[in-house]
Amino acid sequence: MRFNLMLATSKTIYALSSGGLPSGVAVVRVSGNGAFRAAKSLAGALPMPRQAALKTIRTRNGLIIDRALVLTFPGPASFTGEDCVEIHVHGGKAVVNTLLDELSSFENFRLAEHGEFSRRALENGKMDLVEVEGLADLISAETEMQRRLAMEHAAGGLSDLYNSWADRLTRARALIEAELDFADEDDVPGSVSDMVWADMKQLHRELSDHLAGADLGEIIRDGLKVVIAGPPNAGKSSLMNALAKREVAIVTDIAGTTRDVLHVDLNIEGYAVKLYDTAGLRETNEIVEREGIRRALRTVADADLVLSLAEIGEEPQRTFPGFAGRVLAVGTKSDIHPGIRNGYDVLISAVDVAGLNELHELLRRDLQARSGMLSLALPSRLRHRTLLTDSLGAVAAALASEDRGLDIRAEYLRQAATSLGRITGRVDVEDLLDVIFSEFCIGK
User: Is 238 known to sit in a ligand binding site?
Assistant: First the structure.
């Protein structure tokens, strides 16, 4: 069951819902009690619901604005749950601006705010918070894996999982309450503890396994953070440019050329990869270079994977302060050091691109090893991770409180269900809404 805030609104909203102008076609969306009234004024008789019709769009003074396709979506069977109209006009700035100006002249009409169409869908029970976040991610997805993850969320796959867990917690609490209140009645079993707590142990395992996928969910959504680190003149900037296939970093023979952290986004097998080039790591008294090294080490500490570069013949650094993840030892300048292999995971030359395909394959394998699963019903935001952790902790507390009474254990289960409800928006989410919908464009 989805929550329904049912917040009443007297204003009809409108906005350009397609891309930037000029364009071949522009879609203007209208939602609210006055949508059909305005559409009739602009286009005359309206088509049957969900059937497109070519109409002449006119101002109320009879001036022709454009010839356009008009579609109607009566509520509640619409995206927002309200009466909705879409007007597909030619994507010229003058055409769209004139249409928007005309809509503004209707009583109780106003331009939509960021994400307001989606917010009304949420308020009218058409979507929950996870689905809304998935829709926002779908709009901004740049890689195939980001699209698949966002689609799983937007289609309700993750919400269904959380709702099923919340329902199990509710059922467990109901059985506990029955035992507390009707233990002396013949129609209530003497104890339901075995059944309840066996299921809660299984739920604890499911929550733990699910949380284990949070790192992957965040990597897919935000990108795998790969940091190139090593001493000066090890070829870090050259590798950055070679992987990016363009000149991102300045390359010279002067040690300490790179002073700050440089960043470029890559797409590897459908995964987003954020590649960082850092200042050369060495002892120095030069103030600016020391700051660059401090920033480099801070970036390494936050990395998912480190490419530790060293010129072939030199020992690559294997550990870094604050970093406990995987380090790939990369031997550089193989064009001038042929025949040496031991001590490195891969040998490369940014000059003749030798070894770059092998490095690319290692990155691909690392991403696949992290995924290791077919389902993309994964938490992808810190908000999800935090509330899932709270829910897991409450279930664990209930399981560990055998000597504290059923009423205390039931309270822990209530806390677990509440945390799950906050993820989907069933309970106590009003303070989150402004933050979430600020990520949307105006027309969504």
Answer: yes
Instruction: For residue range 311-332, list pLDDT tens digits in order.
Output: 998 999 999 999 999 999 999 9
Q: Is 237 annotated as a binding residue?
A: yes
126 is in an annotated binding site: yes
Q: Tell me the pLDDT tens digit for each residue of 372-415.
A: 655 678 899 999 999 999 999 999 999 999 888 888 999 999 99
Beta strands, E only, 11-108: 12-16, 23-31, 53-58, 64-73, 84-91
Residue 332 among known ligand-binding residues: no
Of 54-68, 93-107, 237-251, the least confident = 237-251
Judged by average pLDDT, the poorest of 3-7, 50-54, 234-238 is: 3-7
CATH of domain 139-213+378-424: 1.20.120.430
> Is 55 annotated as ligand-binding?
no
Domain limits of the chain?
A: 12-128, 139-213+378-424, 221-371
Q: Is 230 part of any known ligand binding site?
A: no
Residue 205 marked ligand-binding: no
CB atoms within 10 A of CB 271: 22
The reply, when asked if residue 256 is annotated as ligand binding, is: yes
The answer to whether 108 and 8 are in contact (CB under 8 A) is: no
Tell me if 233 is assigned to a ligand binding site.
Answer: yes
- Is-same-fold flag (12-128; 221-371)? no
CATH T-level assignment (fold) for domain 12-128: Gyrase A; domain 2 (3.30.1360)
- Does 68 count as an annotated binding residue? no
Q: What is the pLDDT of residues 385-396, one digit of tens each?
A: 999 999 999 999
| Residue 211 identity | L
Instruction: Provide the pLDDT confidence category of residue 368 given band limits of 50, 70 and 90.
Output: confident
Question: Which CATH fold would you assign to the domain 221-371?
Answer: Rossmann fold (3.40.50)
Distance set, CA 8 to CA 60, 114, 126 (Å): 29, 19, 15
Token pair, residue 160, equals 């269904």
The verdict on whether residue 444 carries a ligand-binding annotation is yes
